[in-house]
Predict the 3D structure of the following.
Amino acid sequence: MDNKDIRERVLIVGVDLESDLIDIENSLDELEELVKAANGVVISRLIQKKDNINPTYFIGKGKAEEIRHYCDELNISTVVFNDELSGAQLRNLEKIIDRKIVDRTNLILDIFARRAKSKEGKLQVKLAQLKYRLPRLIGFRDYLSREGGGIGTRGPGEQKLETDRRHILREINNIEKQLKEIEKIRDVKRKKRRESNLPIVALVGYTNAGKSTLMNKVIELNDDYEETKKVYVEDMLFATLDTSLRRSKLPNGQAFLLTDTVGFVSKLPTKLVEAFKGTLEEVKYADLLLHVVDASNKDLDIQIQTTFNILKELEVLDKPTITVFNKMDKVDIHNLVYDNRYIEEKVFISAKTGENLDKLLLKIQDQLPYSYKFVTLNIPYDKHNIVDYFMQNYEIDNIEYTEKGTVLELNINPIDMKKYKEFIV
């Protein structure tokens, strides 16, 4: 059977409040992309203008009854709301609409459950799902007992969610313990990376801004480039979740580590940010951040603001940051309008075509907090452990074996320059 034939038929619902910063139509466009990423198909959308949220039904009761008729007419099985709903709201809407009700938070958690590949990623998502569902157990019972599963039902599963709260709290406690053990392993790896003295550059930004494409384009420049080192890329929200780390080099030959992080999205669930805190904290150990922005997106400023807010929450706003306006192959730079408040250093590129990638690498080279110097080292043969250190942690421009020792030509950082100054020719 064609995959399209088994996708859930979805109605998306948004409430247009005067206080909202983001345009409701644009917000629902993003919600539609999220539904698509969860293997659903949006049949229709409905917007209600309101001054305040209804605490009982979120929308008006009359509008909820109208939605039920829509679903009957259009053969819709799932209704997705653009905001987070309380357990009572979920339960009350289910009673009136008689369909599965999914809110934006649960939809995003569902996508993460589909995409998580590593053990840590799966545990992080499961933890976020349990914390989200714990206060909503009553609201979930009706549709979790129906056959078919689908959007919003992945993760902990029916049985676990039907057990008492104490069981779920024990489950949460168990997952948190496992994540702490994984965090210890990551700390060891992180320490080894720091000991290598290679600068770390972290890619951050909105989901689908092109971070993975940019990473692939940068590592293609490596002399030892192999196709297998590429990271997964797809034109879809949250195509990748697990952090990738790749080695590359700058125009001056200086090696560096490039790491990416999970993409952000507006209204990113707080519980998800909390659960992924360990992974997101990788940016704390970066020497430089590349904030990748989709220049072709009509909600450019909202995306910049969203990333800024999450970086503020992670307490990394003091990091040197380059704003990378990506997808310039789709945009006329003269028509590009954006809020300059959060931007200092910037560069305009197309990761897809490689346009201005050279300028980006030069900008990275200039913005790294410490600059490397090109030196020639003459290391005696009885100090082979020092040669091994440089071979493992630096890109060597040239190596020669002379009567007096091993001669290396390379760019090194100030710390090693001071430490091994006696060998500098």
Summary: Residues 9 and 76 are 5 Å apart (CA to CA). The chain has three domains: 3-116, 197-367, 373-423. The first helix runs from residue 24 to 37. The radius of gyration is 25 Å.
